[in-house]
Structure formats: structure tokens, C-alpha cells
Write a structure and sequence with these properties.
Elements (H helix, E strand, L loop, with lengths): L5 H54 L17 E6 L5 E4 L11 H9 L2 E5 L9 E10 L3 E10 L1 H49 L17 H51 L3 H32 L8 E4 H19 L3 E4 L5 E4 L1 H18 L4 E8 L2 E8 L31 H11 L3 E6 L5 E8 L5
Parallel strand pairs: 7-9
Antiparallel strand pairs: 1-2, 1-5, 3-4, 4-5, 6-8, 9-10, 10-12, 11-12
């Protein structure tokens, strides 16, 4: 059943339901017709029995006298007068003197009017419906009047209806099934159109979308959802292409410099000092390649949802001091002091290694693009903790803040000072992995600040 096409499965299910409905309707109609015919026959028998009882009471005679003959001239009818013991007092000719009721039916009819059916009686075709009723004649004589009618006409009517149902039912079922198949095919035609278009769409066809039916129904909403998914996939593919292009571009520069340093060392490195300088420069470029590879790995894991963190309770002041120690020598060399502005008791919850990586990128960004003192701060804010890094240079260029955390974004490529534009992107990625967010802006008195907001520790 599961291997059949959907339209055929829908048609079979529809046909099964229609068959059940038609069968139920047929049974109901036959039952109603039989009930109505039985009611008509019983009403006729009651009327005839009453008339014959009146004739018997008034005349004290048999059925052949007192004007009863006109009541007996109906086709396929019979009448009989019996004594309580079963002796026939009078009878219509076709019964040939045989009692119409058996002993049990006779005993019941002696008590009160009673309907009964006989499969066959002499002179009557088919089953017979009988009514026996007690009647008092001449004051104290008890007799039983019996009237009956053949059920042949009723059975023929029921048989005719059954034949009509057996012939018309399958035809109606066939027509309904064909109509159901047509409706299912028409309903699934938009799906087939979307499938055909989907088979044609490839990565080289940007902007292609599935056809959406005009009706506002489930298929239309499905098409809109799939088109939205295609849009998201296109955006993701475009981002991946830009990522690969940017990564290739950024990797090309340190590799070319590394190659150049080695070629110069081989060609012109006559002395040990020159070779040492070339090797030292090559090591710097290798460190830069390693850092770039690590940053790319973080971004790639974040894109795949695999950037896992191991949260723990951390002291904000201790975390900032650890990062300051890494840059203390650089600050002394460039004559740019590093300051920690955080309360000793302030605590937060996060992954120490990842947060140190984010703060390191923020401080490195301040050294590269800022001037003056570098301040690392931590403060409680809106139920969380805000970690920030401030410098006192020229700040971000106008219009750059909204894209400061985009990958490979740099305010001024000419003044990039060797950066590849991944530092703040890594900061934003780590902040979001912690359930927080990153932000940046210019200070009113000059300079810039980059910060991340993280959940506070329960200990705070």
C-alpha cells in the first residue's frame, strides 16, 4: 500500500469510504421500505379483520353470508373463521378447509389480536402475513377470525430495490472513485509542478523559486515555506562562498610573505645574522597563519553549531588580570598602559578559555586601531555581567559599527595594520555561544569601546 502513488492511495481510501456509505444507505433504504410495506399490510389486515368481526357479530353467520363476500373478493387475500380448538367454521376457497394458524398461533390469537407469518399455505403463492383476532358472536360464542395477505408483492418490491442497489451502487462507486481520482490528481498537480522545478534548480541558478499555487491553502503555504528555505540556503551558500574567498585571500598574503622571506634567505643570506632574521620573520608569519587557522576553525564550528563551551563560575577581576598579563610586555613596548576596572567580588559564568580568547581579540583590536591607555572593565548590568575594552584613539569610522562584527570586515584596509578582520567576529561568536551578545561604539570623549554581555554567576 505504501508503494502506491499518493493519488491512488487517496482514491482507494475514498472508494472504501464511499463503499461503506453506499452500503449503509442501501441497507437503510431497504429496511425503511420493508418497514413501510409491512406497516401498510398490517394496517390493511387490521381493517379487514375489524370489518369481518363486525359482520360476524351482527349476523352470527359465516363469511359467505351477511354481505361478507365483498370483503373477500380482493386478490391474494384469504379469510377464515376458527373455533378456539382449531375447527374451521368458514373459510375462503383457496385454504381448502385447512386451518391458517398452527396450535401455538391459535392459542395466542384466542387471547388477543396476534400477527403471524407462514412460509406457505394452500392456494397462496409465497409467504403469508396473517392476523388472528378473537370475536364474540351471539353473546357468548367465542370465535377467531383470521385474515391474511400474500407477501409476494412485498418481496418483489424489496427484490427490485435490491437489484437497483446492486447495479447502481457499483456504478455510483466507480463514478465517485473516478471523480476522487480526478480531484486528487488536480490537488497534487501543484506538488508535481514544484517537484519538477525543484529537480531543475541547482547551485548555479540563484534566485530560482518553486511555483506557488494562487489558492491560499496548505500547498500554497508549503510552496512559500520551501521558497523561504531556498532563500535561506542561497544566503548560506553565498556566505560560505564569501567565507572561502575571504579565507583564501587572507591566507594568500602570509603565505606569499613566508615564501618571500625564505627565498631571500636562500638567495642573499650570506651570514648567520641574516638567516636568523629571515627565520624569525618566517616564524612570525607562521604564528599568524596558525592564529588565522584557529580563528577560521572557531567561525566554522559556530556556523555548524558545534562551538561547545564548558561554563564555570569565574571571577571577573581575575579573568581580566589574566588577559592583561598577556599584553603587559606589548603595552610597555608601545608605552600604552593597561588598566583593570572591576570589582573583586563580581563573578560570572562562562568558559574561561573562550572568554580569554574573546578578550584577547578585543585588546588586540584596541592596540591595533586605538591609542592611549587600554582599559579592561567588568560591571554588573541588567542581571548579567558586561566585559568591555576601551581605548582612547579616533574611534570607529562613521558607518562601520553596524558591520564591526562581520567576518573579514575592516574599517580601512590601508590602515589595517596586518589584521584579517576576524577578531571581532570571533568575539561575537563566543558571546552568542554563551547566550549573550557583543556590542561596540564610540566614546563621547573620544576613543572606542567593545563589550560583551554574559550571564552572571549565581554566586554574584
Amino acid at each position: 500500500m505504501r508503494r502506491l502513488p499518493i493519488r491512488l492511495r487517496v482514491t482507494l481510501a475514498f472508494a472504501l469510504v464511499m463503499a461503506i456509505v453506499l452500503a449503509a444507505i442501501g441497507i437503510f433504504l431497504r429496511s425503511q421500505l420493508e418497514s413501510r410495506l409491512n406497516e401498510s399490510i398490517d394496517e390493511n389486515l387490521n381493517q379487514r379483520a375489524g370489518q369481518l368481526s363486525v359482520v360476524l357479530r351482527e349476523s352470527g353467520a359465516g363469511l359467505s353470508r351477511a354481505g361478507a363476500g365483498s370483503l373477500l373478493e380482493q386478490e391474494d387475500t384469504l379469510a377464515q373463521v376458527l373455533e378456539p380448538g382449531g375447527e374451521v367454521v368458514d373459510s375462503t376457497a383457496q385454504l381448502q378447509g385447512e386451518p391458517a394458524l398452527d396450535q401455538s398461533q391459535l392459542a395466542a390469537a384466542a387471547e388477543r389480536a396476534q400477527f403471524a407469518e407462514r412460509a406457505a399455505l394452500p392456494g397462496v403463492e409465497g409467504p403469508v402475513r396473517l392476523l388472528g383476532a378473537p370475536v364474540t358472536v351471539d353473546g357468548d360464542d367465542e370465535l377467531i377470525v383470521v385474515v391474511g395477505s400474500s407477501l409476494e408483492d412485498r418481496d418483489e418490491a424489496l427484490a427490485g430495490l435490491t437489484r437497483l442497489l446492486l447495479i447502481g451502487g457499483p456504478i455510483a462507486l466507480l463514478l465517485a472513485s473516478l471523480a476522487g481520482y480526478g480531484v486528487a490528481a488536480a490537488a497534487l498537480r501543484p506538488v508535481e509542478a514544484m517537484r519538477g522545478r525543484a529537480a531543475e534548480i541547482s547551485a548555479g541558478d540563484p534566485g530560482e523559486r518553486l511555483p506557488v499555487p494562487p489558492a491560499d491553502d496548505e500547498l500554497s503555504r508549503l510552496g512559500q515555506t520551501l521558497n523561504a528555505m531556498l532563500g535561506r540556503l542561497e544566503d548560506a551558500l553565498a556566505r560560505e562562498r564569501r567565507f572561502v574567498d575571504d579565507a583564501a585571500h587572507e591566507l594568500r598574503t602570509p603565505l606569499a610573505l613566508h615564501k618571500t622571506e625564505l627565498e631571500l634567505a636562500l638567495r642573499y643570506g650570506a651570514g648567520e645574522q641574516e638567516l636568523r632574521g629571515a627565520i624569525s620573520s618566517a616564524v612570525v608569519e607562521i604564528d599568524r597563519l596558525i592564529q588565522l587557522a584557529e580563528d577560521l576553525l572557531v567561525v566554522a564550528r559556530a556556523e555548524d553549531g558545534e562551538l561547545r563551551i564548558s561554563p564555570e563560575d569565574l571571577g571577573a577581576h581575575d579573568l581580566l588580570e589574566t588577559v592583561v598579563e598577556r599584553f603587559r610586555a606589548r603595552g610597555e613596548k608601545e608605552q600604552r598602559p593597561l588598566v583593570v576596572d572591576a570589582e573583586e567580588a563580581l563573578r560570572l559564568r562562562g568558559d574561561r578559555l573562550r572568554l580569554e580568547q574573546a578578550l584577547t581579540n578585543m585588546v588586540d583590536n584596541a592596540f591595533r586601531h586605538g591609542e592611549g591607555e587600554v582599559t579592561l572593565s567588568a560591571a554588573a548590568e541588567d542581571g548579567g555581567v558586561r566585559l568591555g575594552v576601551r581605548d582612547y584613539g579616533d574611534g570607529f569610522e562613521q558607518g562601520f559599527v553596524p558591520r564591526a562584527f562581520d567576518r573579514f570586515s575592516r574599517a580601512d584596509a590601508a590602515r589595517g595594520r596586518g589584521g584579517v578582520g576576524l577578531g571581532l567576529s570571533i568575539v561575537d561568536t563566543i558571546a552568542r555561544a554563551h547566550g549573550g551578545r557583543a556590542g561596540a561604539g564610540n566614546l563621547p570623549g573620544g576613543g572606542a569601546e567593545v563589550w560583551i554581555e554574559l550571564p552572571a554567576s549565581d554566586a554574584s
